[in-house]
Amino acid sequence: MVERFHGLDRHKRYTTIAVVNRAGEEVTLISACRDLGAYIDTLRPEDAVVLEASSGAFWWADRIETRGAQCYILDPHKFKIIKDSWKKTDKHDARNMVRALWVTLVSGEFGIPTVYKPSVLIRELRKLFSEYTLVSRQITMHKNAIQAVLVENGIVLSAGEKSELFAGQTGEALLNRLSLSTASRLIIGVSLHLVWTLQEAKEGLHQEILLAGEPLAEQVKLLITVRGISALIALAFLADVGDIHRFRNAKKLNAYLGLVPRMKESGGKSYAGHITRESRKLTRTILTQAVVQVTDASKHFRRFYDDLKMIKGAGRARIALIRKLCSIMRRMLLDEQQFRSMNQELFARKMQAYERRLNALKEQRKIS
User: Fold this and answer.
1) DSSP 8-class letter at 22
2) How far apart, in Å, are the Cα atoms of 330 and each of 86, 244, 284?
3) Alpha-carbon span 292 to 121, nearest angstrom
4) Which pLDDT tens digit goes with each residue over 157-206?
5) What's the CA dihedral at 162, 163, 164, 167 to 10 degrees?
6) Phi/psi of residue 8, each to 5°?
7) Closest by alpha carbon to 39, among 69, 75, 82?
8) Where are the domains of the chain?
9) What is the rounded CA–CA span in Å between residue 36 and residue 13?
């Protein structure tokens, strides 16, 4: 049974802590705890802790739970007592949180809004994908800068010449053949070396993602039965959703991924706007890039996309197809079933390539 309730209002250099007993009486108030780790080491299984969702909250929650204490990570956007407080101070926030925790666990009058705490594996994958996405954006930025300088010099490269320029071995040779001003040659040379360095880093991140996602290999093998879904895309989806069982239906999942339209209602009529773009966005971004291949995954997908494209346009059709695909992948994971319209030959090639690369990376890791 929980005997002590702790409300932690964390900041970068200190934490304000309010503690109440089971009778609801405040027994401790620490205005500025400078060593939160030492305080957590005093916790026991009869303690319950609540803290706001912020940077590092999951790490501290893990540490609190190793002491046997219960830990709740509060969603501050939904916690009205803090969000709409007239007198917002560290002490009031800590007291409000611990009071809400006490009421929830003792009287059960209401439940505090908490956020989902992913496993350590999912959190590691999310960090890797965040860096992977950042590096990809930087590569695109530098490539666009190079293209702009070339256009200023009256040079338009073909698709083959672009591939040659951005390849590390042939890029410098092509650059030397181009008629450029001294400043333009210097700018392009610097940007090219940055692109090559970033491309190498991106490949390293790709490999690390595959290795980190090895415990999810069985789920990856299910998802890659869909044409257009690679192992990287499958891991991105799994990293985004975490535990698929927490979504009661496909609508909840799509809302979490920011794929549902904003709804407005006036005078008894409903209007659908643009997608919310809230919450997780990795899946939406990476599937948008693969939508051309996904439309050929089945005749149903192609017919659905083409029909909607004629009525609503390519943008809305693309999002609708991604929404349908995410719903199907959710059902595949729940039922542990392969995609019904899978191409056996393509799936065999993808499986062979995935397992071969994963085994090679594992061997390489052992040697190093």
Assistant:
1) T
2) 43, 7, 15
3) 30
4) 888 888 888 887 778 888 888 889 999 999 999 999 999 999 999 999 99
5) 120
6) -110, 120
7) 69
8) 4-107, 120-212, 216-360
9) 10
